[in-house]
Amino acid sequence: MFHLTNNLDTKTFHRRLNLYQYLHYTSSHPEKTFRAVIKGECIRYVRTNTTYETYAATLVNFQKRLLKRNYPKNLVDKTFASVQFSNRSRYLTRRQLKPCSHPPPLYKLLPPPQFKALKEIVLQDYTGLKYQPPRFVALRHPTLYNQLVRSAIELTDNQLIEAALSLDDAPQQPVQPAALPRLRRSKMGITNCRQPRCVTCKVHLNTSTSFKSAYPANKTVYYIRHSFTCESTNIVYLITCTKCKKQYVGCTTQSLTYRINHHRSSIIAIIHLQTFNLQDHDITNLKVQPIDTTEDVNDLHNLEKYWIASLSTLVPFGLNVSY
User: Fold this and answer.
1) Does 301 lie in the same domain as 210?
2) Tell me, what's the pLDDT at 219?
3) I want to staple 83 with a disulfide (CB 3.0 to 4.6 A). Which of 42, 161, 251, 293 is the partner?
4) 147 within a domain of the structure (yes/no)
5) Do 217 and 287 sit in the same domain of this protein?
């Protein structure tokens, strides 16, 4: 054929061991995914077959394989009709992108139906001349976990306003290290993870939004200015004995849960925690509260020293042996 027409004839090659395990129609996918599977294969067949006869024969076999995977015949026929062999030159030509001096705006939206509604609103009045049409990215889809597990408590607008006002009225704290992150007032406080097997949250976690030194001369009240959970890392934490009120300031790059589990298993060996082995004391008297954090791990120990000094937790007033 090549010698007669100077054209190279090709057709789709199928491996003999190909099992054609297309996505089964009974799987939990949206219908557009199944249409994309069919249309993508049809376009590939248009590109790889130079004659309509071989293309049509390939489609017949493709339709049989789809029907075996429980694809509805009307869906298959409708999708087949959307791909025309007469448009083969268009499918073989690489699409040229319009020149653009600016990258397209990126919108991160919630999954449908919110995603579709917001996308329609934005595109309806979109008149950008220097930008490409905006790109819409769906955030993580809700899972079965989100449906069965109660989510963390979200503060209402009034509670956020009260928290912000309380911060404005709070006593001024000493200047903290410069590497500390900015004040975040949106979700301040400590949240319980509500996992039934989490000993840290169930027994030891203090979820108060404020804390102060147990040293009588230090009456300053400090406020939690970050969002913490038992899984928070790179934190400074405050341990308080509910029996004798003595306190210990520590820091960790690991999660708070991991750190407290280590303290529980080493309660006899760790000097600053031996107070929980005294008479009338037990491990349930240990209450922990994450109080500060920094993204710079190198500054974590400086932050720990700052809070040891601010809360007066050095021996004999507290449980810290040294800075």
Assistant:
1) yes
2) 86
3) 42
4) no
5) yes
DSSP E strand boundaries for 71-112 = 106-109
Considering only 135-139, 153-157, 283-287, which range has the smallest mean pLDDT? 153-157
Q: What is the pLDDT of residue 154?
A: 56
Query: Predicted confidence band at 185 (pLDDT cuts at 50, 70, 90)?
Result: very low
278 vs 57 pLDDT, higher one: 57
**292 and 188 housed in the same domain:** yes
Residues β-bridged to residue 314: 320
Single-letter code of the amino acid located at 82: S
| Whether residue 217 is found in the same domain as residue 239 | yes
Q: Are 180 and 296 in contact (CB under 8 A)?
A: no
Check the CA dihedral 260-266-268-274 and report its sign: negative
What would you report as the CA-atom Rg of the chain, rounded to the nearest whole angstrom?
32
pLDDT in the model for residue 85: 94
Domain count, the chain: 3
Tell whether 150 is covered by a domain: no
* Cα separations in angstroms, 82 against 36, 42, 220, 230: 11, 9, 72, 53
Structure tokens at 33: 């995914």
Q: What is the pLDDT of residue 136?
A: 74
Handedness of CA 242, 245, 248, 253 (dihedral sign): positive
Whether 204 is covered by a domain: the verdict is yes
Q: Are residues 65 and 161 in the same domain?
A: no
- Specify the pTM: 0.44
pLDDT number for residue 239: 92
Query: Can you tell me whether residue 239 is helix, strand or coil?
Result: strand
User: What would the mean pLDDT of 225-251 be, rounded to a whole number?
Assistant: 91
Regarding whether 278 and 161 lie in a shared domain, the answer is yes
More confident residue, 178 or 228: 228
C-alpha pair distances (Å), 279 with each of 32, 189, 271, 284: 68, 33, 16, 13
Query: Where do we find the tokens 């930008």?
Result: 131
Q: Determine, yes or no, domain membership for 149.
A: no
